[in-house]
Prior knowledge:
The protein is of the alpha/beta class and about 240 residues long. The protein is built from eight helices and 15 strands.
Amino acid sequence: MISVLIADDEQPAVDELAFLLGQDPRIGTIHRATSGAEAIRILTREPVDAAFLDIHMPGLSGFDLARALQRFEHKPAFVFVTADEEGALEAFDLAAVDYLLKPVRTERLHRSVTRVVESMGQGPATDAAAARPEMIAVTLGGTTRMIRRDDVRYVQAQGDYARLHTDEASYLVRVPMSDLERQWAEAGFVRVHRSYLVALPHVTRVRLGGDRPTIVVGQAELPVSRRLLPGLRERLEAATPRARP
């Protein structure tokens, strides 16, 4: 079990996040602070494994607090929790494990805890390089933010651009689909149609027989072209567990 600190200048926000984190069996002790200064006082007495920090707090902001914690002997993993998308670039410059937007959804918070656990070497990504995710700069509504490649469910070709689809939104990037197909193959992405590249770890259902083969990724049902069907079958078979002889 991991110990965490929540720092937010709004008490209801602290209480809500503490409640949600308390539902996760991986979470142990939860410390609460309503200012950056209070958070520092707590952490000098009680080192924690992860800190969930609001960005906009009077006095010490979440970013100020993260910089201060960099000097601690026991440096916690950082997750920023905010309603402001514009801080994502700075957050990842500070090596944040994740960047959560309010209101926080339970499923999304669960993924953040998983990332914290993996960053501590307690999950599948025990190698330090493997634990550091590939980040992608995207623009939405004139704001540049960073998203993790492993949050991308599928990619849709749109001319010279590609649209990256996540659970929360979609983002247009000026990269040809052919380049992403080549660069992301080792990360589990496979071309299933001239217009679609899918992340195999996020595939929930496949129907490869009949006249119209399809593959389901999240809430989207995507077509599979006959030309690319053999390659998809091969990748799916390689990912299927087999009994040892």
